Structures are given as C-alpha cells and as structure tokens.
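Input chain follows. Return structure tokens only.
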Amino acid sequence: MQVEVNGKVIQLSEAGWLENLDEWNEQVAEAIAQNEKVELTPEHWDVINEARSYFQENGSVAEPRKFSKIMQEKYGSERSSSQYIYGLFPYGLIKSANKIAGLPRPKGCS
C-alpha cells in the first residue's frame, strides 16, 4: 500500500502503517487519515501531537490508560476518556490515532 504526498510516494504496510517513520509529516498524516476515513480537526491534532510527544520521550507508544492520564492532565477529563478518543478515531488510540501519527505498529495489533 502507498500514498502520494507532494509528488513523493510513501510506503505503507498492508494494514496502512507507515513503513519509514522518518517520512512522517502533517501531509503524510492527512493522507493516512484519508485512508482511515478520518477528517482531522484541531482536536485530532491534539491527540496526534501528544501521542508523538510521548513516543519521542519514551521510545514506545503510550498504553491507552497512560495516554488517558496524559490527556486528562493537559486537556481535562472531558477530552481524555476512551469514548472521546473513539469519537475522534473510530478504531481508537492504538489502531487509528497512532497510525495517523506515524508511530510504529504495536505488537499484536492488526
């Protein structure tokens, strides 16, 4: 699978995960989001940026409970629940938000 961004072909796995994490940028995120049928809003970008920040600081993707705590500390309880995340990303943090954020595919995640 692949997407074209600004004339450059970006390789994705069969499930739509970014093959080369260094190729991620906001335009690549938009292209992956289209594949996921997600229209990115500022609220989506808050989640994406927090997920990327956690990964850069810790070298791994955040577990959903940990991520919820991070979101609660920064944005409050109304923007930290799993219902809120699923409202933005139909397949949740792990399968959808992290994919759009250009993060690695967690083990056991299809």
